[in-house]
Amino acid sequence: MTINTNIKISPGNSKMGAIPSVSLPAIKTCRDCKCKEKCYAAKLERLRPTVRNAYQHNLKVLQSDPETFWREVEATVMLNRYFRFHVSGDIPSKDYLLRMIGIAERNRHCEILCFTKRYDFVNAVLSDGKHIPDNLHLILSGWVDLEMVNPFSLPEAHVRFKDGTTTARADAKPCNGNCAECAMTDTGCWTLKRGEQVVFNEH
């Protein structure tokens, strides 16, 4: 049986605007965290089978034919000014992160955004002396009861929960709700510096 190896690239959504992204299944590619109890991406997968199938297909291609997966991701990055990894899912391995870095290094024209709770992979790569290109915006994502292990002071993202509590500092920058708008105006997550934080309202 022939497997369709074309990965599913999203052209954007209401929050992202017209920023293409590649996603993987929620929870399955993420670390074990209480955020799974409120995961909007997992909820979306339950409500929309086409979305769930697309994310599962991407993971299947990544596992069975990684060269095709990365070739198609890079082809999209080459043709765009902005790109995002993982509206759903997370970095599944250290090698995956190294591939992301390689793509960013070869495509300096494209600003690439990725939120991650895989502090272990990020810290391991940085401890090995690997440099993260300026156009790859890796933002460590926090959650209540999740220890933020950030020895390299990378930018952080935190949530303001509906009850008003948050793990963010008082000086965290509020998310304005539209990734494309921030990208076009060089603000928000796209310009967070080391040691800075952004805070999102709970979905």
Description:
It is globular, with a radius of gyration of 16 Å. It has an eight-stranded mixed β-sheet with strand order 1-2-3-4-5-6-8-7. Helix content is 32%, strand content 16%. Helix 5 links the parallel strand 4 (111-116) and strand 5 (136-141). With 203 residues, the protein is of the alpha/beta class. The chain is built from six helices and eight strands, in the order E-E-H-H-H-E-H-E-H-E-E-E-H-E. It has one domain (9-201).
Physical arrangement of strands within the biggest beta sheet? 1-2-3-4-5-6-8-7
Q: How many discrete structural domains?
A: 1
Number of strand elements: 8
Give the end-to-end Cα distance, rounded to a whole number of Å: 40 Å
Unreliable stretches, pLDDT < 50, 5 or more residues? none
The overall pLDDT average reads 89
Main structural class: alpha/beta
Q: What kind of oligomer do you see?
A: single chain
Tally of alpha and pi helices: 6
